[in-house]
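User: What would this chain look like folded?
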Amino acid sequence: MNPSTRTFTFMLLFSGSALCQNTFFYKEPQLFSTAPDESASVNTIARFGPVGMAIELHQPAFTMKIGDIEAGSPAAATGALKKGQIIESVNGEILKDIDPRIQLGRIIEKTEATDGVIQLMVMDDAKAAAKEVIVNIPVLGAYSKTWPLNCPKSEKIVRNFADYLAKPDSNKGFAESGMLFLLSTGDEKDLPPVREWVRGLAKKPASRYAWHIGYAGIPLCEYYLRTGDAEALPVIQKWVASAAKGEYLDGWAGRGDVTHLNYGNGHLNYGNGHLNAGGTGVVTFLLLAKQCGVEVDESLLHRTLVHLFRYAGRGNNPYGDDRPETSFVDNGKNGLLAFAMAAAAALTPEGEKSIYAQARDMMAMSSFYTTTFMLHGHTGGGIGEIWRSAAMALMHEKRPLQYREFMDNRKWHYDLSRRFDGSCGILGGARYDDLEWGNLFPWAYTFPRKTLRVTGAPPSKFSKTYQLPKRPWGTAADDVFVSLEPVADKHGKRQDISGETLAKTATTSWSRSHPFPRESSACGTRNENFRHLMTRFFARPSLSFRCCAPIGRPCRTPTTQTSTPRQENSATMASSSPIRRSWAVGRPSTSWTPLMNSSPTRRAMPTVAPSEPSHC
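Assistant: Here's the prediction, encoded as structure tokens.
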């Protein structure tokens, strides 16, 4: 079983069963799959937001104890808190019924909106009397209904973080891509640190590391497009040349160089294959560099763009040069792909009317549909949350209800991730819960401002256009893959999905609400409503749901009722799942283009006639 299938299988089984179990602490199924496990001996909430301490959850669920205390934090300033103390209550509340992270996040939100007082009732041990300890945190005000836009509290959070980044000794984020945050505030007073950074890059050789080229190259280009600073152009050109040297077979390896064999320290090193988590950002950089007017090899630009474009709408941006993946976890690669497509739309004259704008929106909306599986990832889920939040910001005007649902239901996570000094981590993000990666998380507050070309800012007087192919890969029949509209039914009607909410539509919520029928009654008429439901979901734009429908649908899948390329493709992908019962695939169309892992000269995969439809 390949890794993509294993992940998808686990997610489907987990969402449909584990989250539905009756529990003692939780009174209802939780929205997020990473809610603390009430049966675990210890769960750790590594950061109680700007309070500056961790809270450990012990048995019986959930007994709170103080964990590590951050030096210089408000918690440390009390002088009365120490690791291991039992917390009886926080502002008069005990943990009850819901995800403890959400409850604690709401306490921070309420406190910052009122008096800034966190009252902890703590005990040195289980037999000691509780004593009051007061922790004071800054008052920021309440979130507005439109936060992070038109919101005084959000503006204070943004200003605190911008001031932190402006300090000479601050952590500027991975590859110093915190510079992108300073550009995204739209405030002129945040430009001097970026200017100094660009001057520093001019004195250094260009990075050969794909991750750095992408993460640092994007703010480098955005700086020029904002300011027209001529000193940035030679730096951009130097980085383009470095990117070109590292490209092979239309992508980049994890470390940037062309893959190779070498022998070192007595061990065989097989080099590095494609790694789209690094390479996708490089393509975004090249597209922005072209907009800056520097020389970018056209073959390089087109080949690498095609390599990524063909994944849009067909599943998750995969690990490397492979077929799209089918799961609710993408380690941030879908969000990265959304920004690559945003850069393409910003470059080509058709702009918002281009196929690239559609591809951008399709990949950005995967943030909404997969959000309940937050903080999952084989290297740690934090990187996924950076790009999931950033990409969802691209949809705040086009899908306002879904954007609001996304942000309001994750408010607790942003608040608990913030640190007392204005910087940020990513709560629960494993190796990414540090300053290097956490300092990219606040993009969620500023990207909706549309101050960058990749987030929707209009062209500046320094922007150049370049005619990209109207359709870089595939045929007209493939355009449906990047459409956010549901497929029409046999009467020509389309479902109205404008009112989708996380509680009813996103991943775990959907699986709980629509469990698969038992095998023994799968073909009975009593399941006609289920079949109808599967047919409706099979028409949805989200590939994850389209793949769920054939797997969960006994007897015939909805593909026997339609022949749209998007649905045929989903059924074909879902058919490889080991948890399918029985499935049927409509005859593939010869007008749309399947995918294979290949270089541009081997992109098309021959159409193979499927097996006959199976029945119960």
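Residues 210-227 form the longest helix (18 residues). If you want, I can go into more detail on any region.
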